[in-house]
Amino acid sequence: MKVGVPKETAAGETRVALVPEIVRKLTAKEFEVTVESGAGEGSMLSDALYEDAGATIGDDVWTSDVVVKVAAPSDDEIAKLGKDTVLIGFLGPLSAPKTTQALADAGATAFAMEAIPRISRAQSMDALSSQSNVAGYKSVLVATNHLGRFLPMMMTAAGTVPPAKVLVLGAGVAGLQAIATARRLGAQVTGYDVRAAVAEQVRSLGAQFLELEAGKGAEGEGGYARELTDEEKQAQQRELADKIATFDVVITTALVPGRPAPRLVSAESVKKMKPGSVIVDLAAETGGNCELTEPGKTVVKHDVTIMSPLNLPASMAEHSSSLYSRNVQSLLELLLGEDGEINLDFDDEIVAGACITRDGEIVHAGAKKTVEAAAGSASDGAAAEPAATTEPATGAPPAQQDMPPAPASEPEPEPEPAAAPAPAPAERADED
Fold first, then answer.
1. Which pTM does this prediction carry?
2. 242 annotated active-site
3. Is 126 a residue of the active site?
4. CATH 3.40.50.720, domain 136-311, yes or no
5. Does domain 2-125+315-390 correspond to CATH entry 3.40.50.720?
6. Is 123 a catalytic residue?
7. Which candidate, 68, 206, 51, 181, places its Cα nearest to that of 125?
8. Pick the catalytic residue: 43, 129, 131, 308?
9. Catalytic: which of 15, 118, 195, 263?
């Protein structure tokens, strides 16, 4: 099987789909890997390292049997895909209808890493979790850099400084990692999630769990949180407003797949926070959990610093790329047939679930619904204003989204802290 690794061209994307360590393992298993020159530069990986690992450096990567990327391809890149080429990457099936339609029109067989089924057998391919771990970790460092206070308790000759209080809203993978990282740095940490099942996981990391009545037990399908009703949202914000005011740092990670991010931190809540407090909104790509969030920007409102970084995993390209490469490796090995050629077995739950386009058709139900909805909106807009044809920006690849941890068993998904540090039970290891 021939695998092509192009250089990422999306703005701010520093990751690479395969690192030399994984290339070496793949070339030992009947894979031929071609890497575009400079593909690893953003992750500090030279062409020479890839050549030493057994890869060929060349520009003809788009006609390989499989092209592996991080960010979704541009229109120009889609046009380069070979007729029978398989594409793997973060393709935004629920957020980028234009890309999905373009891939279908090109006749590409495309696999979205976001669409990997959340089952035990697919844990090693769960790129959303691996990248969310990075985002959760980095979010605490970002907050610390902007907070004018110590995180840990400090006992000095001048007196004792109490620890900073950190609240993490959303206890999926990124949230649990943020909790664990803040605890390592000595903060007094509290976690919150509408899914009652994750309370034990939050407490296992040494944090307190914030109990609210609004939206309690709002589990959805696959271990995700369901969208709250309007009444539940209003009650939740009222309960959270007074609680948020007591914290020095608030990190928000709450997401509902295919929907705008739930609004958890109102403008009124921000007004009540102490001057100098910090909010880090990891849900900015889908609108943000804070009412005052400005995606991709750092702003100060009511003496509170509000940061909404996009694509945090790209700021730690070395480890982000390494983890993502392992996810891709596992998927590639699943697609490898006994004869060393590509074998797309659509009777396999993982293969069928992750595929979004095939034979010119959109085969992923969620992606198809998103494309149809966008087409309907475009038609309505065209009737009112014929010139309005530009698709709304979708932001960076959704790698940093805080997804619920992978299920412990296939029939009844239950959250568990993926790759979270001890003492979290059932810790997942990102091993080969």
1. 0.85
2. no
3. yes
4. yes
5. yes
6. yes
7. 68
8. 129
9. 118
